[in-house]
Request: fold
Amino acid sequence: MERLPDHVRVAVLDADDLTDEHWIGLSGGDDDPFEVSTGVQLTWLAKDRYVALFDGDRMVARAGLVVVPVLVGVGADAVELDVVGFGGVIVAKDRRGAGLARAVMTEATRIAGTLEPAVGMLFCLASRAGLYAKLGWRDIVEPVTVEQPGGPHTITDHTMWTPLRPGASFPAGPVHVRSLPF
Ligand SMILES: CC(C)(COP(=O)(O)OP(=O)(O)OC[C@H]1O[C@@H](n2cnc3c(N)ncnc32)[C@H](O)[C@@H]1OP(=O)(O)O)[C@@H](O)C(=O)NCCC(=O)NCCS
Reply:
């Protein structure tokens, strides 16, 4: 297992435990660190829990996890499965470029692996996909739809998956996430 950077400890928090102070420390005052303020405005799913890295009392990185049902394929060949959705990944603005995203994703993946689903899934901008590819995540190239208040919506962001158990794979076919995106 990869070692955490010096001085950094991991904690698992309920979404309700996240504070404005944590957010200000992570975003560094940036109003839109995820760059979602332009383009299609999506409604996002609240996460079940956050895996967070702390340096002393300061939260320096976090990744959210939420278990969601998905349908892959069409007709009689369609497969229903649960996945662990990863989202809300962010590193404190003044601590980026030092391996903390790798560290928090490694911890989040380890913790996700203790849950029931065999695979993880995430959405990201194309400009972030290289990060996750370095961590072993793979592209889902088939169309992906998610639920929105107005009905199903086809995702234009990158969608990626990772195995949470040895040998786990993502089924082939178009993907319908039976929840808001995460
Ligand atoms: C994207 C973000 C989480 C990366 O955090 P970070 O701490 O700088 O990343 P790390 O230092 O752990 O990078 C790990 C590796 O991924 C690479 N990497 C990081 N961001 C990358 C990107 N956007 N594209 C391609 N590679 C990237 C690093 O070069 C590093 O490579 P290496 O291990 O070969 O040296 C951070 O910039 C951030 O919080 N951005 C704002 C919020 C955001 O966009 N979150 C992602 C939502 S999907």
